Amino acid sequence: MALSREQIAMRVAQELKDGYYVNLGIGIPTLVANYVPQGMEVMLQSENGLLGMGQFPTEEELDADMINAGKQTVTAITGASIFDSAESFAMIRGGHVDLTVLGAFEVDINGNIASYMIPGKLIKGMGGAMDLVAGADNIIVTMTHASKHGESKLLPKCNLPLTGKGCIKKVLTDLAFLEIKDGKFHLLERAPGVSVAEIVKLTAGELVVPEQVPEMQF
Q1: Residues 24 and 68: beta-carbon distance below 8 Å
Q2: How far, in Å, CA of 218 to CA of 137, rounded?
Q3: Helix (H) or strand (E) holding 5
């Protein structure tokens, strides 16, 4: 079965390391805040100016003034700091973020990403994604493997306008965890119950499949 949004966030959380500064993009990435391994200290950054983002609030914790970049209410952990967006983007552009997690419409075999617009539809703007993909070395993209029409989003070449070139190294979809290197997708793990054949069928870009592909563990 394909992973749920929460399971994707849980698998991303396994890539966190103690002491990391992590930027979480809008959408599925924000859910990672709920699955930071117990006992691990990471500082989650929201590009609107919060470092030290915690889990989503309960009714008792809710503060309408405390929001993330997607305008969702969040909490702040002990030691958190709040600053303006200029300082936030200086942190991003200066390469001070250890891991960036963001969504995408398309990713291709050369590590290109298209994530901010679909021609003919309402465009809110590129937001901070352009800065994040340009300023970070360690990026995980979270996305569905295929569109609702069954068309692959992992392509030989992105069709949509690019957010960044040659910047993506890992992709976690609802079907698989993949690495991009040498102009190919490399299959690392598959979602529980999802066959390698299904992943191959829905991956348009060249895919390298090892003899054994382990299922993700949660």
Answers
A1: yes
A2: 26
A3: helix 5-13
DSSP 8-state class, residue 161: P
- CA torsion angle for 16, 157, 165, 47 (degrees, to 10)? -50
The CA-atom distances, in angstroms, between 199 and each of 29, 101, 127, 154, 183 are: 22, 22, 31, 10, 18
The tens digit of pLDDT for each residue in 68-91 reads: 888 889 999 999 999 998 999 999
Q: Please state, rounded to an integer, the average pLDDT across all residues of the chain.
A: 92
Q: State the catalytic residues.
A: 47
Q: Where are the domains of the chain?
A: 5-208
Architecture per CATH, 5-208: 3-Layer(aba) Sandwich (3.40)
Tokens read off for 183: 């102009």
Contacts of 13 (CB under 8 A, 6+ apart): 32, 35, 36, 37
User: By C-alpha distance, which of 101, 102, 98 is closest to 42?
Assistant: 98
Residue showing tokens 């419409």: 105
**Quick one: which of 189, 194, 186, 180 has its CA closest to 217?**
189
**DSSP type of residue 159:** -
pTM: 0.90
Average pLDDT over residues 25-47: 91
Residues in the chain: 218
